[in-house]
Amino acid sequence: MTVAAALAHGKDVDLQGAAMRFGGFQAVAPTDLLIHAGEFFSILGPSGCGKTTILRMISGFLQPTDGRVLIGGQDMKGVGPNKRPTALIFQNLALFPLMSVWENVAFGLEARGVARGERKRRAQALLELVALGDQGDKRPSELSGGQRQRVAIARALAVEPAVLLLDEPLSALDLKLRQHMRAELRAIQRKIGITFVYITHDQGEALTMSDRIAVMNQGVIEQVDAADVLYNQPRTAFVATFVGEHNTVPGTLGATHDGVCRIDTPLGPLHALNPHALTPGSPALLFVRPERMRLLNGATKPPANAFEATLHRRDLEGAFLHLHLEAAGQSLVVHQTNTGTVPAPGTHRLGFEPDEARVLPPGALAHE
Amino acid sequence: MNSLIATYGRPLSALFLLLTALWAVGLIALPQAVMIERSLWVEERDTSVELRINALYSSLELKRFDLADAKSEARKTQVAEQIATLEAEIKTLEARESAPRKVYTLSNYTRMSSLHFTIFLKTIAYALCVTALSLMVCYPVAYAVAHLAPPTRAALMMLGLIVPYAINELLRVYAWLMILDYQGVVNTLLAWMGLVDFEARTWIPFLESSGSVFVAMVYTYILFMVFPIYNTLETLDHNQIEAGRDLGAPTWRIHQRIVIPHAKPGIAVGCLMTFMLSAGSYSVPQVITRGKAGDWFSQLIYRQFFESFNWNVGAAYSFTLLATCIGFIVLMMRLFKVGIRDIAK
Ligand SMILES: Nc1ncnc2c1ncn2[C@@H]1O[C@H](COP(=O)(O)OP(=O)(O)OP(=O)(O)O)[C@@H](O)[C@H]1O
Ligand SMILES: [Mg+2]
Question: Which positions fall inside the ABC transmembrane type-1 domain (chain B) (predicted)?
């Protein structure tokens, strides 16, 4: 496909200490971040954490107040949005309502002075790429939400960007369409091979689509990793609680042997991994995923961490059971596959292996 | 109609309809109808009876002699009676002569002198100039307020535009008079810089050019252009401008393809209002030029009414202007492809 061939030239995006301050408010702290060429990179964070601000620094609508932004190794200082090798897909798409679909797609070419016939031909090729080959003459308002979404993608791709910037482009769609569009976006990115920088506050979206994800909170990128690493080895309390669910138990650290430490908690002494090598005596938080914790019955060998808890609520979520328990004033959640039997309310023994839990320094938690 | 009755009941609905009808008749139909009617006739005096009247006067004179010569009483009374009937006849004929007759004709329209017609064309051209000038001033201002300025500054700018409108229109025009006068603010400044000399009367006679009327008019009617444009521009999603920019479009292309198409209804309304107001403006040219830079058509109409007392011609001129304005509206709507609905918005 010619369109794909022409577009296969992703560039890397390199933030070097880039920061943004609005008056006295630090929207984005000095950030070092390298997004590789051809990567599907997501920036994940709660509302107001500065995701859009980072995207606008990359696209050129904002000049960083500190540091610099490089695209394909070139410093972008003083280069306006219309001169950067990026294209931005807006949160509300911002299609031009008074132009037909193909004119929307061809606008970037029109701006570059491409002749009308050529424009129409290339717009048509792009519309076919996003499976809208027969919708070119309609107005955007006559399309469905998902179709409009694809028009926005085609319009951005028309200028053959090296980096496509997407600002929560799926947030306006309903759940089903969103899931469908995720797969479609991923497929398009694979096909054309350019760099995607995808912003979302939906962790499901980030986890399923991305090669790597940056988790952001209050203007600070806390961790950059692939989805599985992010999920299994969160490095901060915020990442641990923002990505997936976590049981959080506060405590004081004891001694560490072979990376496994003892932590004294209201539930008694427990053992967990200590990735930051926190020193004995320091306050810490223990994190265990709900699906890594299980109710113990007499048959199996008990794990190294075991304690008693009272089961007071059982939610059946189809394939899973969500069990809400309480132990020594701490509320805990356990996720079990639904095997057909529902545990009775009352006292149970609960446990997890030390390598299923992590001890992290205290910090801001995500409250969802 | 039925929903109106359902909502408000019969008596209230009837009242609403009555008020609407009164409004339509009293404010739209009646004044125009009166004006059109007046423009369609001339007053003619009946001069055909003049000879008869003269003849009657001669016989009256003769009868008066007869009366003086009359010997008998019987003769006297007879002549006196004849005199009375003659006088009565003269009176009715004279009344007929002096009473004007209404004659319906189109001559009020067709007989416009070439001088007046030139003034008419010039006025239309001037009004178009004022409209174009206002558009050039107002579009950037409206755009800046709606999309460039931070909200507090935008509000201040808007306030700055509105405040002068708290002052009477005439005063605003006089303010411009004082600015542009022979020894006005501008010339004083120039004199202060040594560029003109009041003693030698080398001041720049701004007031003798149409340009000063344009400037004063643009100022006087600026809000009627700014607000419609601002209102439409405000509804333009700023992301669309940024999207255009992000796709590589230079500023002029963004305006040509995104901003102006969106603002079209507002631009059309602003142009219509400014054109109508300036084409019909009397006070601005009257005050500013003091008759030194040629009449505008509106001044001509005024003089037909209040100096020549030729109301029929005045009415015809007014109606010509009105018809031209309506023609302009239709043209603009065609040109900008906007419907009545867009304008009502
Ligand atoms: N132009 C601006 N002037 C002042 N403050 C701003 C400006 N733009 C953004 N901010 C502030 O910077 C912070 C980050 O904003 P940003 O739009 O980047 O958040 P976000 O992560 O994209 O949030 P959301 O998910 O809600 O879109 C917010 O607190 C916001 O109020
Ligand atoms: Mg945002």
Answer: 120-332
| C-alpha–C-alpha distance, residues A320 and B47, integer Å | 112
DSSP alpha helix (H) spans, chain B: 2-23, 30-39, 50-69, 73-98, 107-110, 114-143, 151-162, 169-180, 185-192, 210-234, 238-246, 251-254, 260-279, 283-289, 297-306, 311-336, 340-344
Q: What is the mean pLDDT of residues A289-315?
A: 85
Looking up tokens 């109508």 gives B276
Cα B245 to ligand 2 centre (Å): 19
Task: Please name every residue paired with A213 in a beta bridge, in sequence order, or none if there are none.
Answer: A42, A225
Is the domain spanning B110-344 CATH 3.40.50.1000? The answer is no
- Multiple choice CATH, A238-360, 3.20.20.140, 3.40.50.970, 3.30.70.1230, 2.40.50.100: 2.40.50.100
CA–CA separation, B262 and A160 (whole Å): 27
Q: Are B247 and A159 in contact (CB under 8 A)?
A: yes
- Residue from the list A96, A111, A159 with its beta carbon closest to the beta carbon of B240: A96
Model ipTM value: 0.83
> Do residues A107 and A143 touch, judged by C-beta distance below 8 A?
no
Q: What is the distance between the alpha carbons of residues A22 and A6, in angstroms, rounded to a whole number?
A: 39
| Ligand closest in space to the Cα of A45 | 1
Contact A46, A57 (CB under 8 A): no
The answer for residues whose C-beta is within 8 angstroms of residue B15's C-beta and 6 or more apart is none
Q: In what order do the strands lie in the sheet with A66-71?
A: A25-35, A13-22, A66-71, A74-75
* Contact (Cβ atoms closer than 8 angstroms) between residue A51 and residue A77: no
Would you tell me the crossing angle of helices A175-192 and A145-157 to the nearest 10 degrees? 20
Q: Do A94 and B253 touch (CB under 8 A)?
A: no
Domain ranges across chain B: 1-39, 46-98, 110-344
CA of A45, closest atom in ligand 1? 21
Name every residue in B having a CB less than 8 A away from some CB of A. 237, 239-240, 242-250, 253, 257-258, 261-262
Question: Tens of pLDDT along B99-125?
Answer: 777 778 777 777 778 888 888 898 899
Q: Where in chain A is the domain with CATH 3.40.50.300?
A: 3-237
Residue type, A130: V
Q: Are B323 and B310 in contact (CB under 8 A)?
A: no
What's the gap in Å between the CA of A233 and the closest CA on chain B? 38
A56 in ligand 1 pocket by Cβ < 6 Å? no
What is the spatial distance between Cα B319 and Cα A327, in angstroms, rounded to a whole number?
91
- The alpha carbon of A111 and the centre of ligand 1 are apart by a number of angstroms equal to 29
Query: What is residue A163's three-state secondary structure?
Result: strand
pLDDT in tens, B76-97: 888 888 888 888 888 888 887 7
- Report which ligand 1 atom has the smallest distance to the Cα of A22: 4
Question: CA quadruple A55, A59, A62, A65: dihedral positive or negative?
Answer: positive
- E strands along chain A, which residues? 13-22, 25-35, 40-44, 66-71, 74-75, 86-89, 163-167, 195-200, 212-217, 220-225, 247-257, 260-265, 268-273, 283-288, 294-296, 305-317, 320-327, 330-337, 346-352, 357-360
Q: Model confidence over A269-279: pLDDT tens digits?
A: 999 998 888 88
Among all chains, which residue has been given the structure tokens 């008419």?
A: B120
